[in-house]
Amino acid sequence: MKVLLGISIVLAMTLLAANVLATVTGTAGIICNSASDCTTTILNLCAKDSTTPTWQCLTNGATGTLTFGTVGPTFKGTLITHGLIDGNYALIYKPDTADRFTTWTGIGGKVIATFTGAQTNGISLPIDTNLGINLPIPADWNAVPPADYCNKVNTWDSYAHCTGAKIWIVPTSDLTGSNNLPLTAWNPTTYLFETDLVTYTVGNPTATCVNGQCVPITCGISTSGSPDFGSIVPGAVKQSGITTLVTNTGNVQVTPLISGANWVGTKYATLLDGYWMPVGATQWTDTIWANVVPLTTTPTSMGVIGISGTATVSYQLTVPSPQPTDTYSQTITFGASC
Predict the structure, then answer these.
(1) Same structural domain for residues 103 and 186?
(2) H helices within 17-173, ranges in order?
(3) CATH number of the domain bearing residue 321
């Protein structure tokens, strides 16, 4: 007895792409040499002359450089300082109020990291902190106009970004309790201050570098080729001569996902009638036949495909025995993860 298995593969595209556009800040701008340029902020910090109204960086004062991912699940980057007197310090996010010269304590701020001067003096200190908030927070006066730190609108500053978050380095002795904000003391001669305003967004990077410019990430695949197993007798194993070509249509590398449904026959009514086969009767591989694995209803990761790259999926079918004669079909779904 033969079983006709005219497989019909429906390639339902479920693309798991990013749903927000990137905020490109720091030195990235619109020009880039690599993807990291589009999602990395480099912030310089300095000791400032707090005895003058202009608060300019001291010529021979201590400095710091904070490099971090503008968008990421955690606040991740590195900090390096020069000339910072050894002691216990904290890298903090310091929000302002409208009367920032009077209320300077940074209510609502966050400690990003704590360290000693020796740990960062000419040494790159890794930082990876789960902040759980975007910077700046909505209550931060610096988040939106009328705050304006550009072109000396506020008399003193000519920052590249007119609004955003302030990040400072302060001694931990000026913090509340166990290294928390608000500040309990004001000792500006021991601080390193921001030289620009920045942003940080909790999430996955959403921009990449294409032809020297930062553009939103696109994540996608296309597919072609629907296998057909023809006629198979119960208990037999057969490979399909037709494969599925999966092509990366996005601008970043992609991990295709493959899943499927149970086979159903034209006479299928209930699980008791026998006119169906389990999803795992189909096996697939995107490498060699020795690596063939059963198809499942849960999306399974294939190998990573580079930009403009392709992968070929091959199939084989193992028909249960006994199996009623019928024409069976199965739906296979491809998705994409970036």
Answers:
(1) yes
(2) 117-120
(3) 2.60.40
